[in-house]
Amino acid sequence: MARPDRRDPTQIRALHCVLGQLNRVDGSAQFSAGDTSVLCGVYGPVDVKLYDEKLDRAHIEVKFRPDIGVPTTKDKWVEDAVRSTFEREILGQLHPRTLVQINVQVCQGDGSVDAAAVNATTLALIDAGIPLRAMVAAATCVVRPDHSIIVDPTQEEADSALSTHTFAFSNLQTNSPAYVDSRGEFSIDEYNACYDMCMAAVDRTLAFMRTAVEGKILKETQTAL
């Protein structure tokens, strides 16, 4: 079954990102994959409210806003995905009794929004100077009605899929994903195939993200000279 945009099953959409475009936050990044675009702003470490205070680590707060309307149950899933991923990856023990606030805004949603949200958050945290255990990136695969598997689906492709699978991996080269979300009907073989396809897509995404961060650092260094 051919894809509407004529991509190969393993081909991700064109990636683009901008770091540090917001002024009133400690770090920000806009990450785009095709027509999906997510903006993330990070505050912190800052003072935390007493009831959220943790004596041994920073409190991580995530707010996710869709491009249209109020947050739905599906949007809450994405919010939980970002929170659960980065509660493990942020070295919060270095900043106990503080708050790291992550605000994620969908600028345009055309499939794979949860993966784009993870990628935008990683870049915004790096831009804010928040210490991380590793750099994390995510990718989404779907199993289509003919049981073929494609990576980085558009919203049209995701809506007609039998199942959707999002995996996040770090750059530590471990086979254990930082986050997994699988929904729908699928076999073990299909799950494993999605796992492998997402891991390969994440490798390409991490390479892109590293280049973007290195480019910003180089630009800042040249400006300071």
What is the straight-line distance between the termini? 54 Å
Q: Which H/E pattern describes the elements?
A: EEEEHEHEEHEEH
Sheet with the most strands: spatial strand order = 1-2-3-5-4
Instruction: Quickly give the structural class.
Output: alpha+beta
Shape: globular
Helix content: 25-40%
Largest sheet: 5 strands, mixed
> Number of DSSP strands?
9
CA gyration radius, whole angstroms: 17 Å
Quote the beta fraction. Answer: 25-35%
What ranges have pLDDT less than 50 throughout 5 or more consecutive residues? none
Give the averaged pLDDT, no decimals: 92
Distinct helical segment count: 4
Give a written overview of the molecule.
It is a single chain. By secondary structure, this protein is an alpha+beta fold. Helices cover 33% and strands 30% of the residues. The protein has 4 helices and 9 strands, in the order ββββαβαββαββα. A hairpin with an 8-residue loop joins strand 8 and strand 9. The longest helix is centred in the C-terminal third of the chain and has 37 residues, at 188-224. It is globular. The N and C termini lie far apart (54 Å). The model has no long low-confidence stretch (mean pLDDT 92).
Report a brief summary of the structure.
It contains four helices and nine strands. With about 220 residues, the protein is of the alpha+beta class.
Name a few traits of the molecule.
5-stranded mixed beta sheet, 4 helices, 4-stranded antiparallel beta sheet, 9 strands, 225 residues, single chain
Strand and helix layout:
Layout: E1 15-19, E2 27-33, E3 36-47, E4 59-65, H1 73-89, E5 98-108, H2 113-128, E6 136-143, E7 149-151, H3 155-159, E8 163-170, E9 179-184, H4 188-224
Parallel strand pairs: 4-5
Antiparallel strand pairs: 1-2, 2-3, 3-5, 6-7, 6-8, 8-9
